[in-house]
Design a protein that fits this description.
The complex is a heterodimer of chains A (432) and B (147).
Chain A lengths: L8 H25 L9 H19 L8 H19 L4 H21 L6 H4 L1 H13 L7 E4 L2 E7 L3 E3 L1 H19 L9 E3 L2 E3 L2 H20 L3 H19 L2 H21 L1 H11 L12 H13 L17 H4 L1 H34 L3 H25 L17 H25 L2
Chain B lengths: L1 H43 L3 E7 L10 E4 L2 E5 L6 E2 L10 E6 L2 E6 L6 E3 L2 E2 L4 E3 L4 E4 L2 E7 L3
Parallel strand pairs in B: 3-4
Antiparallel strand pairs in B: 1-2, 1-11, 3-5, 5-6, 6-9, 7-8, 7-10, 10-11
The chains are: A mainly alpha (432), B alpha+beta (147).
């Protein structure tokens, strides 16, 4: 990479809005809590703007030519996330989240620098697959694995640090699938064999479909993590479709997932409980039990109206653990339909941009990586927002960039860094 | 003192929403601008077009102009200059090139063949303005660039 600095004007321009967003958000929230603003209360947004500028100038001084819209979008969402941690979470979580933002920025820088050549990622694909499975298995191991809120998806070292390996596994899976599907691309030319009217995919597609299905079921049963099950399998089916253009494979995969989920709900109580809670949260036995969180969330959404209660003026404390699973609901309650629409539109622009980067990428591998990562962001947003709104069973996945949580924030920054690098490669190849 | 404080607070809350929308609108504007630049760049470098006439549900739209360069590989693979999204197209299907002032098309050993004006290509053929090229289920009219 040439070291001559470039002016990234569009990016810098958008960052002004990000700074205003985090500043106004903190003033509104802190101002609603107590009637005077102290300098200490504004230290966090100032520090956040510092991180944002540091990342921008890091890219500019490296002469980075990639996309100028992704970083401001990601930081804008993270800014809203920080405002919401101040608003919703216990006080000691705010400095922690800021620390995670700094670590996320560090991970972003690292992912921009290493590896120097992105195509290296496709060379060690089975190492990636093994690393992914090992990471996934960590929480099941006694000693370091933790079960929090009924899901065994955490790894902890002492009381200090706990993280969810499943978040990082998302990125690893995307890289592995991209490398694998690229390798077996030439099979596309052949029509599938048929047994009666049912097309049977060639073994290089059939075997991973079955393995991934088994893995997803394993995550659901052993780790009780419905969210990760859905996300992993969804990413896989989407990438299979991106690579083959055959909707039939993905439809078959969805049917397999539904069948597996139905069977699991018959056998395992924790799966069944989720579905029962989803279908009838207002029933007498669930209203103040397992369905309480969802019901309170639905009331909050229903109360939001067009403009909401005003940032800092709502009643999010009525929803248990609102800062992790129900940020979308809490945000909507206070900024209304109008604010929620803008938030979802920000995700839309982010994902659209990611998909555009995928379409222009110079090699099939990079196209699949960019497409898979963009889809992962979109799908995860969909799963948790739809869960909050009771469109689908509630799963404990995070809202990208917004939910409280370190593993999620760091992973999403790495995703943005990878998308940026792919767009940078495209610009250099085209000489534009 | 109570009332002005509350008024100011509401001012900040509305300003937050306003900034959220301004940010969004600016982001959409950036998106729109880069899409337009992209289309113009593709069109400017084009020497000729294939204009889609017959297609299927997941293929390109009728009337879509696929820009051609001096040497354009055509096929289903994303690495081609002209990507034909059709299961009946081969990964590397055909080659269209401009040599010594005239356009030529040849089949690149595709499974289902390339059809020019209704007959299957056996060897390299001249390509004239208005010729119809069929690859898989996609039918396209060739249009040489006229300045």
């Amino acid at each position: 990479m040439r070291a001559r600095p470039v002016f990234r004007g569009t990016e810098l321009g958008h960052l002004v809005w990000v700074a205003l967003l985090v500043g106004l958000g903190f003033v509104a929230v802190v101002g609603s809590e107590r009637e005077q603003l102290t300098a200490a209360a504004l230290a966090v947004p100032v520090a956040f703007v510092g991180i944002a500028l540091a990342l921008h100038f890091f890219l500019a001084f490296r002469g980075f030519r990639g996309d100028e819209l992704l970083l401001p979008l990601a930081l804008g969402l993270a800014a809203i996330g920080l405002v919401l941690v101040q608003r919703l979470a216990p006080a000691h979580l705010l400095p922690q989240q800021l620390t995670w933002a700094i670590i996320g920025g560090g991970a972003f820088v690292a992912a921009i620098l290493v590896p120097r050549d992105l195509s290296v990622l496709s060379r060690y694909k089975y190492t990636w697959a093994l690393a992914g499975i090992a990471l996934l298995a960590l929480p099941v191991l006694p000693g370091i694995g933790r079960e929090i809120n009924g899901a065994r998806i955490w790894v902890g070292f002492g009381e200090l640090l706990s993280f969810q390996p499943a978040e990082a596994v998302k990125v690893i899976l995307v890289i592995f699938f991209a490398a694998y599907l690229e390798e077996h691309r030439e099979l596309l030319a052949r029509p599938p064999r048929r047994i009666g009217p049912v097309p049977i995919p060639p073994p290089p597609y059939l075997i991973p479909i079955l393995l991934m299905w088994a893995l997803a079921m394993g995550v659901m049963i052993l780790q009780k993590d419905l969210g990760a099950t859905l996300i992993f399998f969804g990413i896989f089916l989407a990438m299979l479709y991106l690579a083959t253009g055959r909707a039939a494979y993905s439809v078959a995969g969805i049917l397999m997932l539904i069948a597996g989920g139905w069977a699991a709900s018959r056998v395992f109580e924790h799966v069944n409980a989720r579905i029962v809670t989803w279908l009838a949260p207002f029933s007498d036995e669930l209203r103040f039990g397992a369905g309480y969180q969802l019901v309170q969330g639905l009331f909050a959404l229903g109360n939001a109206g067009l403009l909401g209660a005003g940032l800092g003026n709502g009643m999010p404390e009525r929803i248990p653990v609102v800062w992790s699973d129900f940020v979308f609901t809490a945000f909507t309650e206070e900024v209304g339909f109008v604010g929620a629409l803008a938030l979802l539109a920000l995700y839309l622009v982010l994902v659209f941009r990611g998909m555009a980067i995928a379409m222009r990428a110079p090699t099939p591998f990079l196209q699949l990586v960019a497409g898979g990562l963009s889809f992962a962001l979109a799908f995860q947003t969909l799963v948790i927002v739809a869960g909050n709104a009771k469109l689908i069973p509630l799963t404990g996945v995070t809202l990208p960039f917004l939910s409280y949580g370190g593993s999620s924030l760091v992973t999403n920054f790495v995703i943005v860094a990878l998308l940026l690098r792919i767009s940078d490669v495209t610009m250099r190849v085209r000489g534009g | 003192m109570e009332v002005p404080y509350q008024v100011a607070l509401w001012g900040v809350r509305l300003a937050f929403l306003l900034v959220l929308y301004l940010f969004l609108i600016r982001a959409f504007a950036s998106l729109w601008r880069s899409l337009r630049v992209e289309t113009e760049l593709a069109a400017r470098n084009a020497l000729a077009y294939l204009i889609v006439q017959r297609t299927h549900a997941t293929g390109p739209h009728v009337g879509e102009r696929l820009p051609l360069r001096a040497v354009s590989a055509v096929g289903r693979d994303a690495a081609n200059d002209v990507v034909i999204n059709d299961e009946a197209a081969s990964a590397r299907h055909a080659l269209i090139e401009l040599t010594e002032g005239s356009w030529w098309i040849q089949d690149e050993g595709s499974t289902n063949g390339t059809v020019l004006n209704g007959s299957r290509l056996a060897r390299r053929e001249r390509l004239h303005d208005g010729d119809v090229v069929e690859i898989g289920r996609i039918g396209m009219r060739f249009e040489a660039f006229r300045a």
